[in-house]
């Protein structure tokens, strides 16, 4: 605190007149010697300035200004004037601490804190000894921007050499941001720098660099601020451009829309109102004309647009550009066509997509009416319709009447009546509504590919073998005829009262086959049906689909063909595989496409395990899963999605397993697979084969991905001793925690669903509970598909339970699963991370783009049907009734 004379007019701590001004006190110490008022006190080690009126000022070298000196006599005078009687002012008082606001970067004592060193480097070992700096940079730059040296601009990658100057296989890589360190460890640790070539000590080891000793060994160097700003600016510019390493290699527009061509003036609303059936003709004409330019994946007609808008989606962007050139300016129906590439911002109006389904239903009814008319004509005049005397047995819905033996209409009619009411005749069993006793067995050929597919496949065979009364060697020890009635759906009967699974086991390495053979049911399978390679796929989808798997696929197809030829009435194929690996995903989808070519009219069902980082740490799983979904959309009829993330959550949260193993996950999968296939293996009226399951569950061909659930859930080796009721089963069955897919149905709507109850259950109670649940959750079911909830009952319970329920749902919320995989795919593909592993096997980057686009389209389709309103459906049904009335 500074004191001043009360009579002084100057401000506190400042000279009286002209301070700091041109005529004031000198401020530069070099000028003090020339001023007679200034003297230097050796006692106080300060410069003293005395003014003409007797005031003294001291020069404060820290503040670099003159301050008024303290007058001790004046201080004592003021102390006496303000003294309080009875108070000893010489006594020390307790200090009162005043809380000060802590400045950022300073400690409690006001001292500047030293910033902790942020590590941005990784230490890499086991690099090939002949590797170059450019190779290391190309691999590690996919995880983040590598820092640069200030003087030379070269990447900060230090390759350690031995005494002779040879590379030791160790390097230090310094990144610009610390986040890149964890990403590099996650993506590159235990991987190879070069595809198929390991380092001197096996795969690379990537770890956080240790700089704890650096402060003791290195002398800090000073870097000019100009150089610092220059390198930071250069690195930030590179960071901004990092997403597109090669901008020229990427398409100019979004891969989702650069294949879509918008065509205007292709029709008029008057044409549609006059003849709604013209929609099909217009779309067919456009498809025929545009297919000359390239493959077309979709044609959409917007019948609410006065400009007559039609969009055509090509599989190749170049074909879309060519379509714009060819179609633009042409005349279609007397009107000039406008054509351009869509940018995704257009919002065209059309009626709901169910119009196509309604038209197909109308065509089907017309065919049915024509066939019945022909049948009636044949009854009256059998000689006029020779084609009906030899029915087409390839059509299951054709009426199998015996050939006419009389030309009299009355005799024929009497004979048909006798067939209807003859109890010994099996004529009525040919009709769809009499399904109690099937005429023939409908066999299924099962395939399991890859390590995951073989593990869950082995668990599935162990489960259903027990349900059908078979032991580990295939000998029947059951007690019920129901166990044998449909045994041939999955098993071939061999000599000695033994049954052999109709299964083909496939893998690209022998280890998995050996594990299956060594299992409790390893002797159950036919030895000739083990097909395996020696090299493995190494979690590379391209190896399984194009190279290693392609060399083995013909041998697998031969085994499948042999099994199919041994069937009396093959209904289809069932495949268990994983979408995240190399063999199950790559070779599994290759097998599906090959079998589809060989047996185009048979059903194809898959139990597909979707990967999750919680269970596996394979970094390329998003690539493999997206490429696989692209294939399943096109070649599968029914896909039961089994999500590893949901299985893991069930084990952790519901079953309270602290460390779930693959055996625990496979137990859950086998339980739900047993429930889904119950109506295929035991007598029932609902979903008695794969085709009827698809009819009940798939409203639109591409939307065939199902969520599955099971109740009650039990851990492996444990049984449920607490009695459960039908209301509890129904509640658990619809609970998202019991779903085998990590997507909440409350975020979408059910298109269709099916529930199967097993055990001694009252059908009336089941129907009442299902109606109750559906009424409470009506907002989660679409209104425009009637009777979209199916219920079935089987009296045979699973082993260890008195009753159970299995749920199969076609919900639009399944898009959450695809979005999760798609986001992971995009994060890697934008950086071209690990893409060389796939291109090295002959793949092209365009295949990745097409797979991503196809999965995005699938998500959009699910969202489209989720948002469809009941008013649109009612309008279409009304239009359909008007058409029928006019006809």
UniProtKB/TrEMBL annotation:
Offer a single GO CC term for the protein: U2-type spliceosomal complex
Cited SMART domains: RRM, Tubulin, Tubulin_C
Listed Pfam families: RRM_1 (PF00076), Tubulin (PF00091), Tubulin_C (PF03953)
Outline the extent of the RRM domain: 120-211
- Give the signal peptide range: none
Keywords recorded for this protein, A-Z: Cytoplasm, Cytoskeleton, GTP-binding, Magnesium, Metal-binding, Microtubule, mRNA processing, mRNA splicing, Nucleotide-binding, Repeat, RNA-binding
UniProt-listed InterPro entries: Beta_tubulin (IPR002453), Nucleotide-bd_a/b_plait_sf (IPR012677), RBD_domain_sf (IPR035979), RRM_dom (IPR000504), TatSF1-like_RRM1 (IPR034392), Tub_FtsZ_C (IPR008280), Tubulin (IPR000217), Tubulin/FtsZ-like_C (IPR037103)
Chief subcellular site? cytoplasm
Report the GO molecular function annotations: GTP binding; GTPase activity; metal ion binding; RNA binding; structural constituent of cytoskeleton
Where are the compositionally biased (Low complexity) regions? 1-19
GO aspect biological process, one term: mitotic sister chromatid segregation
What Gene3D superfamilies has UniProt attached to this entry?
Answer: 3.30.70.330, Helix hairpin bin (1.10.287.600), Tubulin/FtsZ, C-terminal domain (3.30.1330.20), Tubulin/FtsZ, GTPase domain (3.40.50.1440)
**Cofactor requirement:** Mg(2+)
What compartments host this protein? Cytoplasm, Cytoskeleton
Top-level taxonomic group: Eukaryota
Note down the stretches annotated as region Disordered.
1-38, 83-115, 360-408
Q: Which family does it belong to?
A: Belongs to the HTATSF1 family.
Function as written in the Swiss-Prot or TrEMBL entry: Tubulin is the major constituent of microtubules, a cylinder consisting of laterally associated linear protofilaments composed of alpha- and beta-tubulin heterodimers. Microtubules grow by the addition of GTP-tubulin dimers to the microtubule end, where a stabilizing cap forms. Below the cap, tubulin dimers are in GDP-bound state, owing to GTPase activity of alpha-tubulin.
Q: Can you state the subunit structure given in the record?
A: Dimer of alpha and beta chains. A typical microtubule is a hollow water-filled tube with an outer diameter of 25 nm and an inner diameter of 15 nM. Alpha-beta heterodimers associate head-to-tail to form protofilaments running lengthwise along the microtubule wall with the beta-tubulin subunit facing the microtubule plus end conferring a structural polarity. Microtubules usually have 13 protofilaments but different protofilament numbers can be found in some organisms and specialized cells.
Task: Note the PANTHER family from the entry.
Answer: TUBULIN
Q: What name is this protein filed under? A: Tubulin beta-1 chain
């Amino acid at each position: 605190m500074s004191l001043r004379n009360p009579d002084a007019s100057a401000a506190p701590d400042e000279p009286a007149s002209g301070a700091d001004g041109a005529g004031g006190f000198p401020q530069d110490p070099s000028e003090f010697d020339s001023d007679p008022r200034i003297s230097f006190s050796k006692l106080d080690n300060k410069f003293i300035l005395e003014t003409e009126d007797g005031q003294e000022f001291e020069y404060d070298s820290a503040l670099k200004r003159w301050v008024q000196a303290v007058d001790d006599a004046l201080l004592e005078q003021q102390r006496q004037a303000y003294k309080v009687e009875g108070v000893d002012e010489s006594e020390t008082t307790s200090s009162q601490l005043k809380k000060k606001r802590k400045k950022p970067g300073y400690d409690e004592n006001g001292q500047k804190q030293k910033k902790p060193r942020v590590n941005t480097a990784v230490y890499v070992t086991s690099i090939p000894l002949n590797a170059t700096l450019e190779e290391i940079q190309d691999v590690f730059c996919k995880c983040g921007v590598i820092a640069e040296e200030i003087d030379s601009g070269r990447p900060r990658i230090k390759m350690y050499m031995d005494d002779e100057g040879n590379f030791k296989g160790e390097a230090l890589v310094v990144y610009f941001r610390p986040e890149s360190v964890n990403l590099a460890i996650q993506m590159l640790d235990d991987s190879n720098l070069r595809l198929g070539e390991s380092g001197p000590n096996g795969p690379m080891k990537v770890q956080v660099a240790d700089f704890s000793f650096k402060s003791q060994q290195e002398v800090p160097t000073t870097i000019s601020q100009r150089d610092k700003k220059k390198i930071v600016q250069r690195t930030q510019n590179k960071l901004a451009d990092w997403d597109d390493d090669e901008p020229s290699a990427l398409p100019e527009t979004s891969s989702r829309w650069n294949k879509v061509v918008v065509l205007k003036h292709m029709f008029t609303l008057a044409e549609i109102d006059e003849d709604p059936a013209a929609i099909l003709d217009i779309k067919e004409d456009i498809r025929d004309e545009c297919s000359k330019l390239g493959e077309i994946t979709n044609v959409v007609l917007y019948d609410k647009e006065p400009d007559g808008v039609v969009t055509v989606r090509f599989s190749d962007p170049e074909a879309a550009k060519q379509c714009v050139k060819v179609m633009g300016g042409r005349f279609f129906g007397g009107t000039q066509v406008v054509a351009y590439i869509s940018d995704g911002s257009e919002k065209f109006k059309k009626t709901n997509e169910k119009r196509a389904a309604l038209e197909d239903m109308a065509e089907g009814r017309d065919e049915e009416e024509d066939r019945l008319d022909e049948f009636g004509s044949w009854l009256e005049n059998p000689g006029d319709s020779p084609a009906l005397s030899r029915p087409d047995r390839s059509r299951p819905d054709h009426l199998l009447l015996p050939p006419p033996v009389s030309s009299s209409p009355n005799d024929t009619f009497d004979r048909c009546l006798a067939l209807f009411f003859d109890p010994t005749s099996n004529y009525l069993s040919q009709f769809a509504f009499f399904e109690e006793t099937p005429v023939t067995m409908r066999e299924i050929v099962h395939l399991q590919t890859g390590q995951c597919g073989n593990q869950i496949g082995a668990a599935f065979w162990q489960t259903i073998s027990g349900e059908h009364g078979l032991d580990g060697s295939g000998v029947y020890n059951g007690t019920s005829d129901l166990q044998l009635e449909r045994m041939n759906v999955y098993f071939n009967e061999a000599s000695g009262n033994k049954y052999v699974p109709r299964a083909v086991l496939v893998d690209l390495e022998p280890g998995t086959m050996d594990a299956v053979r060594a299992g409790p049911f390893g002797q159950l399978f036919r030895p000739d049906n083990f097909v395996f390679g020696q090299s493995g796929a190494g979690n590379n989808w391209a190896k399984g689909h194009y190279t290693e798997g392609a060399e083995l696929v013909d041998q697998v197809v031969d085994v499948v063909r042999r099994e199919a030829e041994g069937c009396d009435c093959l209904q289809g194929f069932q495949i268990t595989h994983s979408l995240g690996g190399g063999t199950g995903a790559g070779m599994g989808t290759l097998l599906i496409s090959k079998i589809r070519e060989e047996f185009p009219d048979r059903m194809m069902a898959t139990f597909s395990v979707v990967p999750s980082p919680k269970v596996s740490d394979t970094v390329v799983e998003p690539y493999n899963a997206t490429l696989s979904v692209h294939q399943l959309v096109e070649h599968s009829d029914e896909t039961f999605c089994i999500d590893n993330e949901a299985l893991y959550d069930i084990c952790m949260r519901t079953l309270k397993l602290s460390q779930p193993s693959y055996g625990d996950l496979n137990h859950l999968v086998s339980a739900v697979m047993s429930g889904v296939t119950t109506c295929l293996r035991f007598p029932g009226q609902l979903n008695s084969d794969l085709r009827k399951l698809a009819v009940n569950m798939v409203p639109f061909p591409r939307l065939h991905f199902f969520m599955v659930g099971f109740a009650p859930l039990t851990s492996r080796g444990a049984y449920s001793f607490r009695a459960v009721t039908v209301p509890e089963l129904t509640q658990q069955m619809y609970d998202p925690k019991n779903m085998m897919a990590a997507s909440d149905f409350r975020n979408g709507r059910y298109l269709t669903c099916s529930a199967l109850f097993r055990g001694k259950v009252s059908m009336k109670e089941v129907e009442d509970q299902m109606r109750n649940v559906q009424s409470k959750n009506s907002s989660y079911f679409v209104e425009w598909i009637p009777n979209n909830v199916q219920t079935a009952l089987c009296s045979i319970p699973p082993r260890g339970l008195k009753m159970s329920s299995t749920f199969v749902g076609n919900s639009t919320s399944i898009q959450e699963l695809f979005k999760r995989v798609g986001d992971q795919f995009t994060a890697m593909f934008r950086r071209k991370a690990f893409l060389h592993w796939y291109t090295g096997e002959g793949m092209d980057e365009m295949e990745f783009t097409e797979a991503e686009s196809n999965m995005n389209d699938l998500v959009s389709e699910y969202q489209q049907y989720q948002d469809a309103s009941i008013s649109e459906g009612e309008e279409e049904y009304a239009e359909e009734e008007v058409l029928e009335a006019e006809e």
